[in-house]
Amino acid sequence: MLLAVILAVCYALTLAPGLTWANGGADGGDLISAAFTGGVAHPAGYPLYLLVARLFQYLPVGTLAFRTNLLSALCTLLGALILRAWLARQLAGQRFGDFSALAGALAFGLAPLVWGQAVITEVYALHSLLILLFLFGLGLKTLPGGDWSRGLLLGLAASNHISSLMLLPLLAFDFSGQAWLIKPSLFLKRLAGVMFGLLLYASLPLRALAQPPVNWG
Length: 217
Description:
By secondary structure, the protein is mostly helical. Helices cover 61% and strands 0% of the residues. The chain has 10 helices and no strands. The radius of gyration is 18 Å and the shape is flat.
């Protein structure tokens, strides 16, 4: 709770009120307008981001850009909470374990690069949240949907930012501590989850067919 309050206050006080190029956010106008018009953003298209950003644009507060900026703040906040849960799990039973988990999550949420992306429109806040979910899911012995869900998390992350596919080799390993490598059948199940998540890219040609004003094709 303390973590959420600290980060929420910090992000609320520094959240960009509108469109900005601050913190390397030169793609903000493209992403905001592509989401709003049902268009296609610059390559690689970011289909998941466009869908989620459009949902935030329906919020009845501030400008269109402000509502989209809120997505970044919420994703970073949730990412920090997930990181704290993972650290607390790893440090369970150790002296000052809870404090260390809180400190580690705060260090993440308040790191200049992370904080800078949390207050503008960019794909990286959602990217970090999805990667943290994927890595956390790999380490859990049980997960709703099992290995298919582990693959799905990576597929969704790649539908937000294609660089997530660099983590594909991790799907072959068992991080629950039971073995080094998983069975081939389980790997194929994870791979099927990845492919299902990547189906979101099929929405891009469909969006382009409508000839929206923002359309990178």
